[in-house]
Amino acid sequence: MRASSGRRPSMTVNGATPVGATTPEEVAFAQEVQRGEPILEVRDLRKHFPLTKGVLFKKQVGAVKAVDGVSFDLMQGETLGIVGESGCGKSTLAKVLMNLEPATTGSVKYKGEEISRLSGAGLKAVRRNIQMVFQDPYTSLNPRMTVGDIIGEPFEIHPEVAPKGDRRKAVQDLLDVVGLNPEYINRYPHQFSGGQRQRIGIARGLALKPEVIICDEPVSALDVSVQAQVINLLESLQGEFNLSYMFIAHDLSIVRHISDRVGVMYLGRMVEIGTDLEIYDHATHPYTQALLSAVPVPDPTARESRDRIVLTGDVPSPANPPSGCRFRTRCWKAQEKCEREDPALTVREWLEGRARHDSACHFAGERENV
Ligand SMILES: Nc1ncnc2c1ncn2[C@@H]1O[C@H](COP(=O)(O)OP(=O)(O)O)[C@@H](O)[C@H]1O
Ligand code: SF4
Ligand SMILES: [Mg+2]
């Protein structure tokens, strides 16, 4: 696992001195990341699911705004963690990026090329380069297929990149890469444990040598003891195959462990984004602060001295989000302006040091007593 250390990049604007980078090692790493190109550029992405009424003549009466104006970059070789409560649009975002669901509006560029405008061979090539690992290793593998057929299936869909010679050998190599015995090639999914099935899912994701892997809660369904093994595997594969990861989870501790940067989602929007140090130690958005205050602290002294924020009220419906700031119905800092004006995701000029990162709050600021 990656140590949560000062080796994290500090993103900058226009190649200036990295904000928050202090040690020479940190500055070097920050500059290294700056040089990397974005592999995915997402701009004002929206996915609205129509709400219809009537059986015979369906009439649209509204829309579930599952993803509602999300912008971010995924840099080459980085891990971007995405956190947020259940129902905030994480999986929908992943599916739209994968082209499994068409976007309602907005732009997704892969290496500078607009995905939504591609078709035929161009689209197929992009699909090959962006793979997904799903949450549930029990339902995402076809129980009637052998492990060899499951892992080798992408070769059938993309014969242009399939190994020219022995496919069986290629599948066995993939089993070996994810730490499974290559002799298991003829076994069926039910013969494996949860952690092993997730390794099979990862091997399948790797078959076509993708550049981006979107992991949607890849360890949430696994026992705690197995979660670390799968995270370790993902980290070692990243170095070996130069992968960029988008890592979705609702568990903030796991996301911190694996991520270089973290984006926080609330009700279809990104409300804060920054390096792991910026988000975990210098959060400026009240929603992020509330999520962090709920993370269990093992040290009893630290636990007692900490002010926990208890969010009141339910998450509003994504079909009818509040005006202005979407978080205002649950925010203890809300003021009249929050009802009128939708806060942009940007750096507020009054913030300093590691607090200077993108936050969608009119009154962004670090918390005291944390
Ligand atoms: N196919 C769909 N049709 C209608 N609503 C959907 C569909 N998929 C997801 N939603 C809704 O979109 C919102 C976001 O869901 P989802 O992306 O699964 O969130 P998360 O992964 O963060 O839990 C939820 O309110 C969910 O009910
Ligand atoms: S803009 Fe207002 S309601 Fe929204 S998070 Fe900031 S203080 Fe709270
Ligand atoms: Mg989900």
From TrEMBL:
CDD domains, sorted: ABC_NikE_OppD_transporters (cd03257)
A Pfam short name: oligo_HPY
Molecular-function GO term, any one: ATP hydrolysis activity
GO process annotations (BP): peptide transport; transmembrane transport
Sequence segments annotated as region (Disordered): 1-22
InterPro entries: AAA+_ATPase (IPR003593), ABC_transp_ATP-bind (IPR050319), ABC_transporter-like_ATP-bd (IPR003439), ABC_transporter-like_CS (IPR017871), Oligopep_ABC_C (IPR013563), P-loop_NTPase (IPR027417)
Residues covered by the ABC transporter domain: 40-292
Xref: PROSITE patterns: ABC_TRANSPORTER_1 (PS00211), ABC_TRANSPORTER_2 (PS50893)
Keywords for this protein: ATP-binding, Nucleotide-binding, Transport
Entry similarity comment: Belongs to the ABC transporter superfamily.
Protein name per the record: Peptide ABC transporter ATP-binding protein
